[in-house]
Amino acid sequence: MVSPRACVSKLGSALPLLLVLWDLQYEGAECGINAEVEKELEMGKKLLAAGQLADALSHFHAAIEGDSDNYFAYYRRATVYLAMGKSKAAIRDLSKVVELKQDFTSARLQRGNLLLKQGKFDEAEDDFKRVLQSNPSDKEQTEARTQLMKSDEMQRLHSQAQAAYLEGDYYTVIGFLDEILDVCVWDAELRELRAECYIKEGEPGKAVSDLKAAAKLKSDNTEAFHKISTIYYQLGEHELSLSEVRECLKLDQDHKECFSHYKQVKKLNKQILSAEELIQEGRYQDAIDKYETVMKTEPNIAVYTTRAKERICHCLSKNQQSTEAITLCTEVLRLEPENVNALKDRAEAYLLEEQYEEAIQDYETAKEHNENDQQIQEGLEKAQRLLKQSQKRDYYKILGVKRNARKQEIVKAYRKLAMQWHPDNFQDEEEKKKAEKRFIDIAAAKEVLTDPEMRRKFDEGEDPLDAESQQGGGNPFHRSWNSWQGFDPFSSGGPFKFKFHFN
Known about the structure:
This protein has helices spanning 17-20, 35-49, 53-66, 71-83, 87-100, 105-117, 121-133, 138-166, 170-183, 188-200, 204-217, 222-234, 238-251, 256-280, 284-297, 302-318, 322-335, 340-352, 356-369, 374-390, 395-399, 407-421, 429-449, 452-459, 481-484. 38% of the residues are buried. The longest helix has 29 residues, at 138-166. With 503 residues, it is mainly alpha-helical.
């Protein structure tokens, strides 16, 4: 049968050195080695045994230069190449050995093993059969028979894989190829076929490793790099996609598909990086605009739209646009219920909206999926404190302002309410007492929320005017109506120069 063609490049790490130090005690006298060549071979042999591969290789190079017909020098150099993971070069040298000495069964057997790893069944079988037809040692005969049977089994599986592929049964093809590639680890075409089957089965992520191997095994494999880049792009891995398509263009700068894809990925990648830089600078509205551009640049792949919305949600939350943040985060979470980033950002937005129970729920859900995130734990504790606090006295509610209100808004709200609830406005004793209590709360709210340090404590769940929340017992800020009578609702907090009387 016609075997699939494959590259001879080494896949993965080099074989253990002990497995490729073949017959180091083999005598080379019959090669007719001259003294200088013999010296190079001996030095190379010692360095090879010591694992100094590069130095050993240089000596075997020198030996071949001194005697280009010395099969033993090629055999030794093939040993080093294989130990270094250079199977293509190793096969070339082993072929030279066989050409120079037809009955060198060790070289032929080793070449057959390498050809089998490449999936070159016919060529490998020819080597194994020739070994058996020669005068092999018992060990060589056993190995040749074993490998010949293995090659026959791989060909049978290959035929079954081809038949299943024609029937569109890609899952079965993958099963056959798994078995074949355990033996034929350097067969680039079979790896590309398995990658194609993974893609057809809707598992492109699994195809990447096979395509990367194929890109190494086959020279100038621009198609593999293009496929890898495309898969990464569709999975939302734009940076990896850009890296792989550049590898394609290194091999062929005029490759039409790679160049077209490169322009698209580069443009999108630049926009995303720019948006993230804006977020780092705290320029949230600019970042929102940039991510909206990202969605326009790539409207056809859903993952980029979702990621962009996730990041816009983050910007809205940080920009204290809580209502919009909640809406967009919720949209993301409908698609990805376990998206920790969206859960955290929506929780922060809920805190701004004083929806503490909803914030707690989001933080708890996020913690289930990432229990080691310190930010989640701190957010959860803060939400729990604020919920407890909201069940007591809430200075924001007293003044009727939002938690993100500016100082000017707070002072304005205070003045309006202080005028409305000043006890001098009320004649009835019961109403006056209620007004006094309300006025005290209004003044307390203004004192806390206009003082940066006190407001910070309150925002973290601690009431700076609550004796119970103050360590050390007594509260220096606890006041009665009398202590507030000197406050002018139209000043920044100084005592009245005179007392208002309202008609």
